Amino acid sequence: MNENVEVRITDSSKGKGLFAIKKINSGSVIFEEDPLVSCQFSWNAAYQYRACSHCLRPLETAQENATRLAGHFVELPYPECCTTDKTKTVSCMMCAEQYCSVECQTEAFNQYHRTLCLQTAERNNTHPLEGLNEAWKQVHYPPETSTVMLIVRLLARIIQSPNKDAAIEQTLQFCHRTVNEDAELAHNLLGEKFADQISLLHNLLLAAMPHEGIEQFLTPAGFQGLLALIGTNGQGVGTSALSQWVTKTSDLTLSDEKRDVLDKFIDNLYDEMDEHSGNFFNNEGVALYTLQSACNHSCVPNAEPNYLHNNHRLSLVATRDIEEDEEIVISYLDECLLQRSRHSRRKELMKNYLFLCNCPKCEEQAEEPDVTSEEDECMSE
Ligand SMILES: [Zn+2]
Ligand SMILES: [Zn+2]
Ligand SMILES: [Zn+2]
């Protein structure tokens, strides 16, 4: 299935894992894959972060992106470094959903959008799908980690699949929890005080979707299982027209003087954006990846997900040399959490993924006292 990796059953309690079947050099792409399904975060979309409804590719030019995030008109030099091609943007004739290309529109329609497309007249807060999205926004504020709309697409995908059994099988491969574990994970995703909201979200989902062929996912336990699924397997996706432009400008051949002017311009721009948009720069969403989801966690990872194509296509990149038969491991914790104490890391992993990390770093630090110090907290919390 892939020249670099294969999924193997590990002898530990972790179940399956991804292993290198040959030596992989640091910095190289281990594999690339498109998601089973992806979706922009609900608040990210509501705040006009303009991305393709299907693949999350930016729909703004880098200059429009910078202008919106800085809150005033910004003229970007070297416009040829912008990679957005707005001539390819298309909209759904029925609901005005926007896509980066006809290819994305067609793929979305054939996979799930035929079921979800709302007539223009219906596209308001009273439509059950919009109601579900609004209800989700009220229980899950930024910084976002998931969206119930990913569940909607996942179910619509099954409904539209020419082979329902296979589509259900593909979905179930992400589920391997008990009912109690699902409940715990679902509550974590929604936050403790919003636990009651599960039944509201569930009822809105029932009103928003056709039921035929997906009955097993529409019971209260089935819905909780889906929340647990997106909570533990959902992989964050980020795209940006501006960061693409910055990357392209770094490849330009410029005099030292011009390079210096450009660097100062970019630094200043990011300061202004930070002030106006408070660190939320990217189009952000969440996706489910079949192969990547087989990757276990380690606090000393040897690989990380990247979005080199500036859309939802994931590239898993080796962060150090990996030997043949070595397990490929990524970090489920963000950069900041990863730097925290053994106790904090393990607490976070247990809470969100229900496992106790026994990676080499956690083993090595086993003698550390189990305390969480003040300076151990992350900025985002
Ligand atoms: Zn697209
Ligand atoms: Zn539509
Ligand atoms: Zn660990």
TrEMBL record:
<keyword id="KW-0949">S-adenosyl-L-methionine</keyword>
<keyword id="KW-0489">Methyltransferase</keyword>
<dbReference type="GO" id="GO:0140943">
    <property type="term" value="F:histone H4K20 trimethyltransferase activity"/>
</dbReference>
<keyword id="KW-0808">Transferase</keyword>
<dbReference type="GO" id="GO:0032259">
    <property type="term" value="P:methylation"/>
</dbReference>
<dbReference type="GO" id="GO:0008270">
    <property type="term" value="F:zinc ion binding"/>
</dbReference>
<keyword id="KW-0862">Zinc</keyword>
<dbReference type="InterPro" id="IPR046341">
    <property type="entry name" value="SET_dom_sf"/>
</dbReference>
<keyword id="KW-0963">Cytoplasm</keyword>
<dbReference type="GO" id="GO:0005737">
    <property type="term" value="C:cytoplasm"/>
</dbReference>
<protein>
    <recommendedName>
        <fullName>Protein-lysine N-trimethyltransferase SMYD5</fullName>
        <ecNumber>2.1.1.359</ecNumber>
        <ecNumber>2.1.1.372</ecNumber>
    </recommendedName>
</protein>
<dbReference type="GO" id="GO:0140955">
    <property type="term" value="F:histone H3K36 trimethyltransferase activity"/>
</dbReference>
<dbReference type="InterPro" id="IPR001214">
    <property type="entry name" value="SET_dom"/>
</dbReference>
<dbReference type="Pfam" id="PF00856">
    <property type="entry name" value="SET"/>
</dbReference>
<feature type="domain" description="SET">
    <location>
        <begin position="3"/>
        <end position="333"/>
    </location>
</feature>
<dbReference type="GO" id="GO:0045814">
    <property type="term" value="P:negative regulation of gene expression, epigenetic"/>
</dbReference>
<keyword id="KW-0863">Zinc-finger</keyword>
<dbReference type="InterPro" id="IPR044422">
    <property type="entry name" value="SMYD5_SET"/>
</dbReference>
<keyword id="KW-0479">Metal-binding</keyword>
